[in-house]
Amino acid sequence: MAVRTVLEWLNSCSGCEIAILNIGEALVPLLTRHLELVHAPILMDHKYLGQRGDGTEFNIPEAEVGLVSGGVATVEHLQVLLQMREKCRILIALGTCATHGGIPALMNGQDRKEGWEGVFQTRTTDPGCSVPDVEVPAPLDRVYACDEKVEIDLFLPGCPPNPALIAEVLMAVVEDRDPVLPHKSVCDTCPVIREGKGAVSVVRRFLVNAEFLAEDPIDRMRCLLEQGFMCMGPVTAAGCAGGGLPRCIAARVPCRGCFGPVRRDGNQMLDMMNALASNGSDFKSVVDRRSLLRFSGAHGGLRPLRRKSAAERG
Amino acid sequence: MGFEPKIIAFCCNWCSYAAADLAGTARMQYPHNVRIIRVMCSGMVHPELVLDALSHGADGVIVLGCHLGECHYQDGNRKALARSEVITELLEDFGYETERYEISWLSSSEPDRLVKAFTGITERVRKMGPVNARDLAG
To answer: How far B114 CA sits from the closest chain A CA (Å)?
Structure first.
């Protein structure tokens, strides 16, 4: 019997849904035999409040498994997520926005009011423009990851998540077994040459190309962190490795940390700074270190900077 | 009743925890605000532990290790010092005052230094107020 499945998106860009499409050939048996999609706003016209909008009760059908992408930024997102939790037996957070806040949670690092005004009232907007308060769902005080609001059964980070892992999780549900997911860091899946600690004194941004020979495979290239580039491999969860290589490294570009921290409650910026400092590198050479939390700003990771009191300002 | 801060102290097994023991047997007085956590070496205090303590309501955190050069594990306290620089630098990023954190060195025969360090941070944090009562508006 096909497993009843719900797809939902909250504060999401639909990249995670594209990743589902990217499962490729394995998607065909999943869709035709194993899964029965009963609700998916990206695919089908199923309204929350009845097809003519005349219902009074929020209506997401009951399902065995629910995939939710995107973080929680408005009261509408929260309402949908709560409903999903109520109706789905297994709730899966799909993508880094759902698991760690993702790119939208960068907003958490600045003052919310200034941020919203910056969006709706720039110098180029028409006079009289203001932050809307009708017809747009009210924003929450910050951007949340899904597990800050409801219990999540399975986390599948990634920006975008790895299609092979999505297929693995869905098949695990169909076959009623535990999914096999990676739990180490990007470095553990990275084949480049590492020659040991202590080689890096200063960390640079990736503004010039790394050193490598174009005809050499990746496993003949020196580790990008050891070349002095800010590579977030050590503090980022593995999983992107399509075809055996971490994706950015395969393009000879340093890891940007899109799978979030290795441990669920880890802090990528803190861990990276700690790793650099205890290896004797100058952690102050990292430009704009708060951006290391660019994918994991929920869970209180990014907060507005403390304003100095009058006494401190002198 | 005035504000009584909660201070978490990470003491290394070989020097500062022994010093705290000695302070106890010598009946030396120090503020009751300090909660000691014994660790094998000050070098194992990951910045995350400090951040965790503050985010769970500790008003101040102090790390105490052996004198530099006298580490039981050769260079554990040098590591602690390197990590400590990260902590003081990053506390502001997470919205805490740097004065809530301190690192200090003492040997197992210096309970007086321990008492001084404990009294110092307690008094300082007492003046700063509770950890989340920050002046966000000013």
So the answer is: 26
| One domain for residues A29 and A138 | yes
- The pLDDT tens digits of the residues spanning A55-109 come to 788 888 999 999 999 999 999 999 999 999 999 999 999 999 999 999 999 999 8
Which tens digits make up the pLDDT trace of B55-96? 888 999 999 999 999 999 999 999 999 999 999 988 888 888
Are residue A119 and residue A150 in the same domain, yes or no?
A: yes
Partner-chain contact A274 B86, CB within 8 Å: yes
Q: Is A273–B137 a contact, with Cβ atoms under 8 angstroms apart?
A: no
Kindly state whether B55 is in contact with chain A, defined as any CB-CB distance less than 8 angstroms.
Answer: yes
Residue A118 has pLDDT above 50, yes or no: yes
Q: Taking all residues of chain A, what is their mean pLDDT, rounded to a whole number?
A: 89
Chain A residues within 8 Å of chain B (Cβ atoms): 266-267, 269-271, 273-274, 277-278, 280, 283-284, 289-290, 300, 303-307, 309-310
Element (H, E) at A155: strand A154-156
Q: Does A270 sit within 8 Å of B51, measured CB to CB?
A: yes
The Cβ of residue A245 has, within 10 Å, a number of other Cβ atoms equal to 18
Q: Is the ipTM of this complex over 0.85?
A: no
How does pLDDT run across A259-282, given as a tens digit for each residue? Answer: 999 998 889 999 999 988 888 888
Q: Which residues of B touch A273 (CB under 8 A)?
A: 47, 86, 89-90
Question: Is A289 in Cβ contact with B82 (below 8 Å)?
Answer: no
Question: For residues A72 and A59, what is the distance between their CA atoms, to the nearest angstrom?
Answer: 19
User: Cβ separation of A289 and B93 shorter than 8 Å?
Assistant: yes
Q: CA dihedral defined by A145, A149, A154, A156, rounded to 10 degrees?
A: -10
In a domain, B135, yes or no: no
CATH number for the domain including A35?
Answer: 3.40.50.700
Closest listed residue to residue B118, CA positions, set B26, B42, B17: B17
Asked if residue A203 and residue A152 are part of one domain, the reply reads no
Range of the domain at B103: 7-128
Q: Answer whether B100 touches A (CB < 8 Å).
A: no
Q: Cβ contacts of residue A226 below 8 Å, gap of 6+?
A: A194, A195, A199, A200
Q: Are residues A118 and A47 in the same domain?
A: yes
3-state secondary structure at position B74: strand
pTM score: 0.85
